[in-house]
Design goal:
470 residues, 4-stranded parallel beta sheet, 7% strand, TIM Barrel, uronate isomerase, domain 2, chain A, 3-stranded parallel beta sheet, 49% helix, globular, alpha/beta, 2 domains, homotrimer
Chain lengths: 470, 470, 470
């Protein structure tokens, strides 16, 4: 039986000359409030404020970081109870699924998912033993009991986690009813939306047509032209802002931005409506819409985020059976220097505009992103994203970015998670890794301890708050 | 005079909190048997079991890792006695060549070749002084004497090295006579073949036509159609399996796999036969044959290996005079996310199929390979290959792969060498680097010592054995 | 008030087992003379040998590494007094500009610019406090006083810095009058030119036509044909050699080299003259001229440098107002394996020819550059360049290059600076980082201390001197 021992010095360099400094820096930031300016938590859980159904539903089913690893070792998604979209029958017994998960829990050794889960089990839920096949059901029961208690309701956890603000991600046609209800409920938790129009700006999206129809319904008029589309998006951005949104988000394969002119844009939009647009049309339209989104951000002040490089739904079989976001999005090479030139030339010299750029291709860090962010007033670098939101990934980011862009062209940590309970775990890792990085600069006499403490607070709290205007 | 001192803590992090743990982990794996599931040792040496001719023939001539470095510093391949293929006269005095090598031995400082050679000289052959221009001939004589003794015959070394199984690499038209003879000899050493059909599947290979003729000879019928080619390859795979093969290997510039359909494949094959195929034809045919090879692996259970990214025979002058494998293969950019999608979509969800992927482009590790292997049940990552089979290279591999793919989507260490005597040296480096990596996780409180010991044994022994079905 | 404390162990690994060795190695190289074989210092300052005008003109205005960071945080180039090229009015009060700089000096924490400036302020000029908004003007005055004294005249600093040779970078049509005058002055400082023909070989250069006219003027005949162009360039190389040049330099986006043949080259040159050449024409002509430059180097012995990968003048607005070299050059992906094959096949086996290759794309290090340099006798690797001339950047270079290319296919450190006073700061960083890297090899028992000391001296002094034939 392996008892948990989440060591107070975990992730720090074991060299005492670094570790002791890291420890001191970490002490000053570990309890700062959490700014979560971008993520995918379902806001409805704070409306309902009901207990999570069971451990399997809480930890495994919504977390494609976790179940993809089990899938890679030959456990079917059916056996894991992942809800299918085509009536494929899947396992429904949460304990049976939990057992499978527990037996393979050793697969997460050395991974950030393992690190986060250990934190959640041990620190959030007080589990004493590390999960394995033998203690699986015992721990399931322990977790289940906790989950059912009022101490672990979503709002209670939100407060316990010291979340100052949590941003969700929402489609332009979303009503934002949960956000409204949270506000009206009198609860003090700040949950704001973010405007993510991918389903509308990507003509090749499988549900594009119905997305446009949903948008028509919510704006109350037909979107028969590109001009009407722009009008609708501008109106919805206005509404999102009123509902507390401070940012937009754009998930694209390529960061290519290029203004086609209204006439050409209209032509492509009509091809979309008539169902005749090609992938090249869709790519061109996306590039055009990135320019439009930047223009609108200059006008309405919403911070623009670009998440590029994910090749979505790589595994067609999994997509057909289980839909999107099932651990089968695979990174692909990214380019920013040429792709973003038009956007940055048109809007990047405006220091009132903010575009925060993310990549899944780490080669961009030192080659393109740090030099661009180290020059253009509008551009800032998002933290390491997705697979790179990890101890080594964050360390590489700081090592490859800081010398060219400094600390102040980055925006602090963003958890970007749909697993609510993992939020404090993820921020804790980021705070530890940043403390350790700063400690390594102090120990190598590159910055003073006073400077490190200022930077640590900025990385943990101030930069995200300022960059996202929160 | 510099005496060898191969320190027991070599390659370990000097921080005692890591080093001492690394030492403890290493102690538990250093004497495990060697699984060598992929390599290029000539099996005939175990048939003959005769003394190696001389130190120059043993250490220098077959090792393009070594002589390319001397060539890069202005020593001609003629002077190094590399056998020419076009009657260019080359140096034949092994001592003269050895002297040149010894004088430049300092060039290998900080390189894995230097590390391996030091191990071979000092630990395998008991040489006390580090090689240099002055002691060159003395050490030559010492080595020569050892080589001639029965203690250093190939079979004796095989056993002394504790090799449990050694795989060679063989063309489909190879008779596998040496493998047969080894079996029949009554010697217990396990030497198995691997099926590498590049010479047949690559229409642009300079000897393609004669390779097909060799294949015709061995299957006993004319290969006049694509269908016949497939038949012949299937028959040979069957024979290889009977001879102990458990794997195939595919050396390709690009990992692109795409099914052309039988009709188009036939067309390209006929162009090959008539000598009219273009490079584009050859690339398309290779992509098609990768799909066929995956299909056959699904059917016959042979593990499929893809080694992509080597631009072969970059230096035409060297190729004309000395042929292939002369240190002039240069890595080029690789892509897997898009290139392998068709193959992985068709066969990658089958957990009975295994495809092990290697790259010469380290940017693929975190961007493509770890996410693919961390999702598809069939896909596993080969260890760092060729230039990256090095202390820093292996460390980067673990740091960039583990957090996304974990340890259990990798397959342990593979030496991939044609230098037989370097095998224990290479495995020792890998065991040290993995022990050190695990120790760094223990020292940073990410895994426990118990976990590290289990993983260490898996990385050293179990994973290769299981992945290659040995 | 933060007093400077440039610690004697700065940048060294804090682990005493590495740090103490690094310290010992560094002691043996820190005072070696500086070889500066490539850079952009204006030679006229050594002709005039007058005091630098003021701190703002000395530290900020010529250093685009520095002012781009301020620009990225919203301070306009106008406010920073960067001279405009289109009559945009800019700030002229050096103290006002200095204040802005000082207030944002914390932005350079963790960057090489910060490291260099700290050295310049503290070690070269004896400033005791770290610069900030409050002490800005006090430090300005202190610096101004020093600058005006004879102890800080350019020639005095040159000697104090122990510069053995300094290379400038010059256009083919430059008269090299400053170099002549320095020689004639009787002063012993060795300042040599380098031949950089980009303005002539790049048809797409905005001033190409007038550059050709300048070349006509200096050779004394009309350049109406490609043949005449080649003649003119050969003559000017000859003259540069007579003036002490030992190298040429080629700044290109891509390292692609390809011989077009005289006829095609003539056709493109005529298109250039008639102002009808396209970007594709310009790219082809550049590729052709790289082959010609290599040929000439084989003939006249000038060492060839290729600096590839900078996408120049990315920000059109900044280019229009302030011209080139304003911190808006952004790296882009580079390729060498295929691009340099023709050049290396034709000239790379000639060990009397030297081509030194630089990149702004770090992915080339282990994938292409180290393997190429580790094979071709003519090719050597330039040190990490521009954004990568940094503590982490140099460390990555050694870690990614050494195992494949060894130390002896690299050429030591090159400062490549236009900021004269930063030269000793930059060389000091390089000496420290190399000492630390070697110490890490010693501490991991990979090389002996004796070997480390030899290599350290080679990296610091001998390799640059030999590679550049100085």
């Amino acid at each position: 039986m392996a008892l948990y021992n989440l060591h107070e010095d975990r992730f720090f360099d074991p060299n005492p000359l670094i570790r002791n400094v890291a420890r001191d820096i970490y002490q000053t930031v570990k309890d700062l409030p959490i700014i979560s300016p971008h993520g995918h938590v379902d806001p409805q859980i704070f409306v309902d404020n009901k207990p999570f159904p069971n451990p399997t539903q809480l930890f495994l089913i919504p977390d494609h970081y976790v179940f993809r690893m089990l899938y890679s070792k030959g456990i079917s998604l059916e056996a894991l109870g992942i809800p299918s979209v085509n009536n494929t029958p899947v396992e429904t017994d949460p304990k049976k699924i939990w057992k499978l998960f527990a037996e393979k829990y050793y697969l997460f050794n050395g991974t950030p998912s393992g690190v986060w889960l250990d934190y959640e089990f041990n620190i959030v839920f007080g589990i004493k033993e590390k999960l394995n096949g033998e203690n699986a059901l015992k721990i399931y029961e322990e977790l289940n009991e906790k989950i059912s208690s009022p101490d672990f309701l979503p709002r209670t956890l939100f407060e316990k986690f010291r979340i100052e603000v949590l941003s969700t991600t929402d489609a332009p046609f979303d009503t934002l009813d949960p956000h409204k209800k949270i506000k009206e409920s009198g609860w003090n938790g700040k949950v704001v939306p973010a405007f993510r129009p991918d389903g509308i700006t990507d003509l090749s999206n499988q549900t594009w047509k119905s997305n446009v129809e949903k948008l028509e319904q919510i704006v109350g008029y037909k979107i028969t032209s590109y001009k009407k589309l722009i009008q609708a998006l501008e109106e919805r951005r206005k509404f999102f802002k009123e509902m507390g949104a401070t940012s937009t988000d754009h998930g694209v394969v390529s960061a290519y931005a290029h203004d086609l002119g209204d006439e050409e844009a209209e032509k492509l939009f009509q091809k979309g409506l008539s169902g005749t647009s090609t992938q090249a049309d869709a790519d061109a339209f996306t590039a055009h819409m990135l320019m439009q989104m930047a223009r609108m951000s200059v006008e309405d002040g919403l911070v623009m985020q670009i998440h590029a490089g994910a090749y979505r739904n790589h595994n067609k079989d999994v997509f057909t059976k289980f839909g999107a976001d099932k651990g089968a999005d695979i990174p692909t090479t990214c380019e920013y220097t040429k792709n973003m030139q038009e956007l940055l030339n048109k809007y990047g010299n405006d220091s009132h505009f903010t575009v925060i750029v993310f990549t899944m291709d780490e080669t961009n860090y030192s080659r393109e992103l740090a030099p661009l962010a180290g020059h253009y007033p509008a551009m800032k670098l998002g933290p390491p994203w997705w697979f790179h939101d990890s101890i080594e990934g964050m360390t590489r980011f700081r090592q490859q970015v800081t010398e060219t862009a400094g600390f102040y062209n980055t925006v602090g940590f963003i958890d970007d998670t749909r697993a609510f309970v993992s939020i404090p775990a993820r921020h804790d890792v980021a705070r530890r890794v940043d403390s350790n990085y700063l400690a390594s600069l102090v120990a190598r006499h590159m910055i003073s301890m006073d400077e490190a403490l200022i930077i640590a607070k900025d990385l943990t709290y101030n930069l995200a708050k300022e960059a996202y205007k929160l």
